[in-house]
Amino acid sequence: MREADISSKSFTFTFLLSCFESFRKFECGEMVRADVLKIGFGSSMFVMNTLLDFYAKCGENLDVVRKLFEEIPERDVVSWNTMIRTYMSCGEIDSAIRLFESMPERNLVTWNSVVLGLVKGKNMELANKVFQRMPERNNVSWNAMISGYIKLGDLKSAKAIFDEMPKRSVVSWTTMVSGYATTGDIESARRIFSQMPVKNVVSWNAMIAGCVNSHMFDEALSVFHRMLVDGKCKPDQTTLISVLSACTHLNSHEHGKWIESYIRKNQFELSVPLGNALIDMFAKCGDLQNAEIIFRKMSKRCIITWTSMISGLAVNGQCTEAVNLFDTMCLEGLKPDDVIFIEVLSACAHGGLVEEGKRVFNQMVPWLIFLVEQEK
Description:
The protein is mostly helical. Among the domains are: 235-300, no CATH class; 301-376, Serine Threonine Protein Phosphatase 5, Tetratricopeptide repeat, CATH 1.25.40.10. Helices cover 75% and strands 0% of the residues. It has helices at residues 10-22, 26-39, 45-57, 62-71, 77-89, 93-102, 108-120, 124-133, 139-151, 155-164, 170-182, 186-195, 201-213, 217-230, 237-250, 253-265, 272-284, 288-297, 303-315, 319-331, 338-351, 354-375. The two termini are 54 Å apart. Residues 1-17, 19-29, 31-36 and 38-44 have low confidence and may be disordered. InterPro entries: PPR_At4g14850-like_plant, PPR_rpt, TPR-like_helical_dom_sf.
């Protein structure tokens, strides 16, 4: 563009900056900035705001972003909002608040940026003060406050905000369900969940995961069954991983096998987390044949995949096969961790594989030395 001496338009600059932002091409952005000033677009609010946003999102030195902000001759609310958001993301709370208080005018985005920044910084006292001053609020404002209190474990304050909401979104309801479920208050989670006018898959997942985390595995399967009967939301991979965990803890091969057939029937992708959950369920239910079928089907595997399969073989008395699979894993270039070393050594001990145990232990020694040196 520069070499051909093509006249640069404002939309061209903003388009280029968007492209450079995607690839974090800060140096290219600097070149565009030079052209912007040279050609006279320094007075264009749209171009300068885009440039400011580019520098902020590229994580450039805060002083550089601040300097550019100060160079903008006539700032609009977008300029101020970008600078406030940048301060907040850098943890410069005091600077963000000072700028916020000095703004000639504010819009809803301004207020939400400050509230969100304070919530992210876990400063709920100040966030609530700003929230109470807001001339208008939307779901972003309310949900930010609810989420912030829940992350601090303050369910009482979260519920007070929730009760005050004039119109609750599915996100608001789900956040409350998740908050209660995470803290183990399944009764309150169940009550909120039952009152929801509309549920999405995230809502169902929050309730199911809450039951699993509270060791209420039968209840988790019951909620899953109601989800299928309700029929308004289809389970996703997160749902299936949670219910497979419930099956594993209940040692319920029957339920687990049904879920595996549901996965096949509905053509779910065999992702690493889903494959791991299936292997773990089958192996702990003593069905090594199906565990191995899933293991072989997986196009990608992680250390947890191998650990689950090796552990399953060892627990079911196939200790030699467990050691052989460990050797295969090492040959494929995957580095063992402490969990898998313990599983393999345990397999050697239970199977009376003395020589194999010595070999694995000797393989483990350099890894232990490396860990010790890393901690120095």
